[in-house]
Design a protein that fits this description.
single chain; mainly alpha; 4 helices; 0% strand; globular
C-alpha cells in the first residue's frame, strides 16, 4: 500500500474516531469502536513515519509534552508501587492515549493541511446534529 493511500485511510479512521467517540456501546472507560479506529489511524501513520526513515514522527515543538508525559508516568508508577493501587497505572495509560490522539491529529494536520481541518470541522458539526437528533 502506498504512503498516500495509507495516510488517506488513517485520516478516514481518525475522522471516524471523532464521530464515534461520543457513543458508548460498551461501558464507559473501556475500549470502544472509536478507540479501535484511533489505533488503526495511529499505526498506519506510525508505519508511514518508520518507512520514511526521517524520524518525521517527532515534533521538536512537542519535546516538552513528551518530557511532561515521562514525568507523569514516572510519578504514577511511584505512587502505584508505594500505595499498591493499580489505578495509577490506568492514569498513565490515559495520558499515553491522549498524547497519541494529539500526535495523530498533528500528523494529519501537517500532511493534509487545511483540507483535513475543514473535514474535521464538518465532522464536528455533524456530531452536534447527530446528538441533537438522538436527544429529540
Amino acid at each position: 500500500m502506498k504512503i498516500q493511500s495509507r495516510a488517506a485511510f488513517a485520516e478516514a479512521f481518525f475522522l471516524l474516531f471523532v464521530l464515534l467517540k461520543q457513543f458508548y456501546i460498551f461501558p464507559s472507560g473501556g475500549v470502544g469502536i472509536a478507540d479501535a479506529c484511533l489505533f488503526v489511524s495511529f499505526f498506519l501513520l506510525l508505519w508511514d513515519c518508520l518507512k520514511e526513515k526521517k524520524n518525521s514522527f517527532r515534533f521538536q515543538e512537542d519535546r516538552l509534552l513528551y518530557v511532561f508525559l515521562f514525568f507523569v508516568i514516572a510519578i504514577n508508577i511511584c505512587y502505584g508501587i508505594l500505595l499498591k493501587k493499580t489505578e495509577f497505572f490506568r492514569y498513565s495509560v490515559f495520558w499515553i492515549y491522549n498524547v497519541g490522539v494529539i500526535w495523530v491529529f498533528r500528523k494529519l494536520a501537517c500532511w493534509n493541511g487545511q483540507r483535513f481541518l475543514v473535514e474535521l470541522n464538518w465532522i464536528a458539526k455533524g456530531n452536534i446534529l447527530l446528538q441533537l437528533l438522538i436527544y429529540v
